[in-house]
Specification:
The protein is of the alpha/beta class. It folds into 2 domains: about 5-180 and about 225-245, Rossmann fold, CATH 3.40.50; about 195-220 and about 250-280 and about 300-324, UDP-galactose 4-epimerase, domain 1. It is about 40% helix and about 15% strand. It is built from 10 helices and 13 strands. It has helices at about 15-25, 55-60, 80-85, 90-110, 150-170, 195-205, 225-235, 255-265, 290-295, 305-324, and strands spanning about 5-10, 30-35, 45-50, 70, 115-120, 170-180, 180, 210-215, 220, 225, 245, 255, 270-275. The strands form 4 sheets. It has a 7-stranded parallel sheet with strand order 3-2-1-4-5-6-11, with helices on both faces. The chain has a two-stranded parallel ribbon with strand order 7-10. It is globular and about 60 Å long. It binds nicotinamide-adenine-dinucleotide. Nicotinamide-adenine-dinucleotide binds near residues 34, 54, 75, 118 and 194.
Length: about 325
């Protein structure tokens, strides 16, 4: 059988660098593109191009040489500290939309026929996520639209863009809405980190037995370990289903309980101090009915298993930084 050739856009990022490793294990030839290399590991890609995908010329260039599938993960993004302050709205919308427009146009010009696009749970309307105990995130509930961030609005626009290219230009698109993916080699410091990594860092760094947690801590989320995210992506692209479909865990937890879980794993006695901070919606959980129906599969690894591996990795990073 001929080797399949994959292009991973955003290959220097958290999910992208793990995806490259997975594709290599599956026998793909892989070209990665990103503004930067991964901070934490050597890329497993056969070819890695450092470049800016807002540049339409670069997008055309990287599509050359017979690409069978594009994984489009590149986006200007971050955790709540980046997305919900409002300070980065113009960049988030402009940069990510430009990347998606360029990539689809370059696929069309070069005759590349299949693409995976990573959308986000952030597209779901705020009005369905006011009750931390009963958020509604079934795929069909995306409309009437009402995301609570410009990041979410851009993702919703781009989902439609990928599906429009599928309708009009014969490009097979697979769209997933990721729900809080976490694991080793995710951003853990600097302001763009997500809550699981942030909690692990705060606990690992804590000297006085307290950590600060944004909000009242009653807000809920679910978190999906990276390996299961990639399993979902591969199952989706190997199916006929285009989505959009949730790829997330349905093990919902409050942020204070997440902090307590990390503290328990660390073995440190930790008290939580809730402080004001950027938050996002009150509650969010993945609804996995559609993925079960269409792919006959849904994530099932308990949160604690992934958090244990992530805490180990983050505490190593904290120790390395201290030793510097
Ligand atoms: P990440 O920030 O680690 O990776 C994104 C990568 O895109 C980065 O390495 C960045 O350098 C690259 N990039 C940004 N602008 C670029 C440009 N102009 N040209 C080339 N590369 C550029 O994020 P991630 O967590 O790996 O997320 C990957 C994708 O999944 C993103 O599209 C994100 O919106 C989506 N997503 C992630 C999560 C999550 O929890 N991690 C949740 C929902 C959706």
């Amino acid at each position: 059988m001929e080797t399949k050739r994959a292009l991973v856009c955003g290959a220097g990022g958290f999910i992208g660098s793990h995806l490259v490793r997975r594709l290599k294990k599956e026998g793909y030839w892989v070209r990665g593109v990103d503004l930067k290399h991964s901070e934490f590991s050597q890329t497993a890609a056969d070819e890695f191009i450092v470049g800016d995908l807002t540049d339409a010329g670069l997008c055309k260039l990287v599509m050359q040489g017979g690409i069978d599938i594009v994984y489009q993960l590149a986006a200007d993004m971050g955790g709540a500290g980046y997305i919900f302050t409002g300070d980065n709205d113009a960049n988030v919308m402009h940069n990510s939309a430009t990347i998606n427009l360029n990539i689809l146009h370059a696929m069309q010009v070069n005759g590349v026929k299949k693409v995976f696009y990573s959308s986000s749970a952030c597209i779901y309307p705020e009005y369905n996520q006011m009750d931390p105990d009963n958020p509604k995130c079934s795929e069909a509930s995306a409309y009437p639209a009402g995301p609570d961030s410009e990041y979410g609005w851009e993702k919703l626009f781009s989902e439609r863009l990928f599906l429009a290219f599928q309708r009009n230009f014969g490009i097979k698109a697979h769209v997933a809405r990721f729900h809080n993916i976490f694991g080793p080699e995710g951003t853990w410091t600097g302001g763009r980190e997500k809550s699981p990594a942030a909690m692990c860092r705060k606990v690992a760094e804590s000297q006085d037995g307290t950590i600060e947690v944004w909000g009242d801590g009653i807000q809920t989320r679910s978190f999906l370990y990276i390996d299961e995210c990639l399993e979902g992506v591969q199952r989706l692209v190997n199916s006929d289903f285009s989505g959009p479909v949730n790829i997330g865990s349905d093990e919902m937890i409050s942020i204070n309980n997440l902090a307590k879980m990390v503290a328990e794993i660390s073995g440190k006695p930790i008290a939580i101090k809730n402080i004001p901070g950027p938050l996002g919606v009150r509650g969010r959980n993945s609804d996995n009915n559609l993925i079960k129906e269409k792919l006959n599969w849904a994530p099932s690894i308990p949160l604690k298993v992934g958090i244990t591996k992530t805490y180990e990795w983050v505490s190593e990073q904290v120790a390395k930084q201290k030793a510097k």
